[in-house]
Specification:
about 220 residues; six-stranded parallel beta sheet; 6 helices; elongated
């Protein structure tokens, strides 16, 4: 006769098996996603302004200007420097800054624009995408809203690779200009987050996730 205790033992074993299977699937998904991002981006990122092909538009991926302790965010600073370098090298004609403007007290695109203008870039050469809440949004909106099917992405290498993966999967022709990276503890934390971000990007493409907002088309230049 089957006892309650034996039923519970069988149930626990089944739960453990299901949990292990799900854990293995999650690990495999993460590994495959990260490999896909890395593999697709190979040969499409550059560290030299002399070697990168020309594109009409450079897409700068936004980040906050300041860290939580009030210091300049070096991810921001390095992207500013690289954008100016590409522009002055004649490798881009226009700049599209895409970032988060989720509330009136946080505005990544305008911070980039003001900094670029203060360093000599003409305002009319800069367009802003205020709905770049995620890299996926920035990349897709560069095409859907700003009409660019080929552009240069400006960010750190790890970020460029993920953006290139998203763009390629949407049929876009893009390159990445690799900005100087941050090597502090903050940089290590970013690398850990990037592992999960690439997994999320892989799943977003798999399930056809789109931007949070679209809107009216905007002409650059």
């Amino acid at each position: 006769m089957t006892t309650f205790a034996s039923i519970m033992r069988k149930l626990r074993k089944r739960i453990i098996r299901i949990t292990l299977v799900l854990a293995v699937l999650c690990i495999l998904t993460a590994l495959i996603g990260n490999w896909r991002v890395y593999n697709i981006a190979q040969g499409k990122t550059f560290t030299s302004a002399d070697e990168i092909p020309f594109n009409k538009v450079g897409l700068v991926l936004g980040t906050s200007k300041f860290t939580r302790n009030g210091n300049i965010n070096m991810y921001f600073e390095y992207r500013i420097r690289a954008t100016i370098q590409l522009y002055k090298s004649g490798k881009i004609k226009y700049i599209l800054v895409s970032g988060d403007n989720g509330n009136k007290n946080y505005d990544e695109p305008t911070a980039f624009k003001n900094e670029l203008i203060s360093r000599g870039i003409l305002a009319e050469k800069i367009s802003l995408d205020y709905a770049g809440f995620r890299t996926l949004d920035s990349v897709i909106r560069a095409h859907a809203i700003f009409g660019q099917s080929s552009f240069t992405i400006i960010s750190q290498k790890f970020h460029n690779e993920r953006a290139i993966y998203l763009a390629e999967k949407k049929g876009l022709n893009v390159f990445g200009y690799n900005v100087e990276d941050v090597t502090t503890n903050a940089g290590m934390k970013t690398k850990v987050r990037e592992f999960f971000a690439r997994t999320k990007a892989f799943l977003d493409i798999l399930f056809g996730v789109g931007p949070k907002f679209y809107g009216e088309k905007i002409t650059i230049g």
